[in-house]
Amino acid sequence: MPSRGSRRRAGEAGGRAGGAGRMDAGRCPPGGRLDMSHGFVRHIRRNQIARDDYDRQVKQAKEQQLRRRLTPAPPRPRRPDRQVYRAGRRGESGPPGRRARSEASSGSSSSSRERRPRGPALFCLEYEADGGQVTSVVVYQDNDPEEVVEKVSAQNQLEPALHQALRQRVQEELEKRRVKR
């Protein structure tokens, strides 16, 4: 039996010679390329492709979300949630200057009393007709519900049932707000 040292030397020598022999035998192609027949790299590539697909989907979802936010307004205009100042609503029949002069020249005491605010303003009533025309009337604390509905009816053709329902609703809103103040 050979000694331990001789075995080691023989193994080392055999290992070097065997390794060189395998390379020369054609097991690995020349140029130092790796043998990919084990299939491990295939799993890595599949994971990379899946990751790239996922990243692409997330990026597209973000872009679509931004597009949805930047879309134009819906075809039917929405009602504003809060009171909005709209200039020139009173004088729709003509230019504002001409309308103001005609009101000043008429100067009846009843019309000047209606325009003058009586008590604090409670709310602004906005009535939207079927055609989309919005009529705004400021309702004051001392207003009569029938008077408010008449102002709305002057600009819109209201059916008697709708006239009565609007008067009822204005009455309820006035009572609610008068109690709070």
TrEMBL record:
Return the Basic and acidic residues bias intervals. 49-66, 78-92
Query: InterPro entries, per this entry?
Result: UPF0561
Specify one Pfam family. UPF0561
Q: Where are the residues of the annotated region Disordered?
A: 1-121
Locate the compositionally biased regions of type Gly residues.
Answer: 12-21
This protein's superkingdom?
A: Eukaryota
| Bias kind Low complexity: ranges | 93-111
The family database entries (PANTHER family) matched by this protein are listed as: UPF0561 PROTEIN C2ORF68
Which protein family is named in the record?
Answer: Belongs to the UPF0561 family.
Name of the protein in its database record:
Chromosome 2 open reading frame 68
